[in-house]
Design a protein that fits this description.
single chain, five-stranded antiparallel beta sheet, six-stranded mixed beta sheet, alpha+beta, 288 residues, 8 helices, 31% strand, globular
Length: 288
């Protein structure tokens, strides 16, 4: 082989080596990418769970079916209304329908209504598009005048990355949660299960629902230097501390409650998920 050929052969080998190195760098994720990939999402359920929650409805949901039939089928499979706090404003007028259909998001003047349901175990949302006279929504089958036009499944909107757990001791975790708005945002599930009151004519009745973390404002405990303080609806904390009752439950969950004054109080359930606790439920309806 001539000297010129040797030089050319050497250049080819060097070029191939550089190409292989570049390909290897492109293929190997960076340390930062690996860290992000290893961090689980708060609202990222196992794919089998997501499919299971939706699969049970596959043969049930049909275009043009009576909305009340869809509603009954969805509720029977463990989905609950996802409450929109702006329903009355979106509907307008007296908006009594917002109490009757807790899942209602809005209804337009031409009869198009949007409803939302949520499934807590996998933190997913079912959006339903219906059309017709919503004041006659209980009519079923061929008599129905409010019918389904379409539907869509989607993950609940919320935090996508798990922050560092403040503590592996629940009482220390609760101190951090009650004393820091940022910790509350990071460790509240995208969907909070809330027990609500509604007007049932001569009396009130309770019903379970979900509220998105962005709309939930029911956690009203602040951690001060001398203990826990109850916060009123205006954001003002009671100067006197209030004792909390903390009870451990199955699967690492904790039930936290308090009594305030003669008859008021509230409770919260924190579920243990992915190495930390998350505010998951507001299980006792407040006084109407």
């Amino acid at each position: 082989m001539t000297e010129g050929n040797n030089r050319m052969h050497g250049k080819i080998i060097v070029a191939l080596a550089l190409s292989a190195l570049v390909s290897a760098c492109d293929a190997a994720p960076s340390t930062d990418t690996q860290a992000r990939a290893a961090t689980p999402a708060v609202n990222e359920p196992a794919q089998s769970q997501v499919r299971a929650a939706e699969r049970v409805l596959e043969g049930v949901l049909k275009k043009d079916m009576a909305y009340v039939d869809l509603r009954n089928a969805v509720l029977a499979e463990g989905w609950l209304p996802l409450v929109d706090p702006l329903c009355e404003e979106n509907v307008g007028g007296e908006a009594a329908i917002c109490s009757q259909l807790a899942e209602l998001e809005s209804c337009s003047g031409d009869g198009r209504c949007l409803m939302r349901f949520a499934h807590g175990s996998d933190q997913s949302v079912l959006k339903v598009d219906a059309y017709g006279d919503y004041t006659k929504w209980p009519l079923s089958g061929a008599a129905a005048v409010l019918n389904v036009r379409g539907w869509e499944f989607s993950p609940a909107q919320g935090a996508t990355m798990v922050a560092q757990c403040p503590s592996q001791n629940f009482e220390d975790f609760l101190n951090a949660f009650a004393g820091d708005d940022g910790v509350q945002r990071d460790f509240t599930l995208p969907l909070v299960k809330v027990m609500q009151y509604r007007d049932a004519g001569e009396d009130y009745e309770t019903y379970p629902s979900y509220v998105s973390a962005a709309d939930y404002s029911g956690f009203r405990i602040d951690r001060g230097a001398d203990g826990f303080h109850i916060v009123d609806s205006t954001g003002k904390a009671d100067p006197m501390p209030t004792p909390l009752e903390i009870k451990p439950e199955a699967e690492g969950s904790y039930y936290v409650s308090y009594r305030y004054g003669m008859s008021e109080g509230n409770s919260y359930r924190f579920q243990h998920r992915r190495g930390c606790w998350y505010l998951a439920e507001d299980p006792d309806a407040p006084s109407p």
